[in-house]
Design goal:
37% of the residues lie in helices and 21% in strands. It has six helices and seven strands; from the N terminus they run H-E-E-H-E-E-H-H-E-H-E-E-H. The longest helix is centred in the N-terminal third of the chain and has 11 residues, at 30-40.
Length: 138
């Protein structure tokens, strides 16, 4: 398959399904969010409402910046609500967007992952940079 044909691929064809990355309910403490991120080894966790609406996300980089900014003991940070330390308006993409446009957005926003949502903000999946680029180049 040529690279030119792959430029017409959609995000939905490459996105990671919900069961393959950490999707957490809004009532979770920060320590549990970090443990979920470690389990999936992606460096990101999405926090959703009871009806699956994306409320925010936590990334490894956000954790590092938060630790440096907050200057409080780890034990106190760990029991905070994860929502207190997440990005509440993350960059997202729709499943019917072209993959090449998603990669360009990731470059522009300097992110490795894009939550994939529907028009109502419901989380559908996650687009990770490596499989997206691999698909375009194959």
């Amino acid at each position: 398959m040529s690279t030119e044909n792959n430029k017409n691929k959609l995000v939905s064809e490459v996105m990671i399904p919900l069961e393959k990355f950490p999707v957490l309910k809004q009532k979770i403490i920060f320590k549990e969010a970090l443990e979920a991120m470690s389990k999936y080894n992606l460096g990101i966790a999405c926090i959703v409402s009871t009806d699956g609406i994306l409320l925010g996300l936590v990334t490894d980089g956000d954790v590092r910046r938060k630790i440096l900014k907050i200057q409080k003991p780890f034990s106190a940070l760990f029991v905070d609500d994860a929502l207190d330390h997440c990005i509440k308006q993350p960059v997202t993409i729709k499943s019917d967007a072209k993959l090449i446009d998603a990669i360009e957005l990731m470059e522009k926003k300097h992110v490795w992952d894009l939550p994939v949502v529907n028009d109502s903000g419901k989380l559908l999946g996650l687009l990770h940079l490596h499989p997206a680029v691999k698909t375009i180049l194959s």
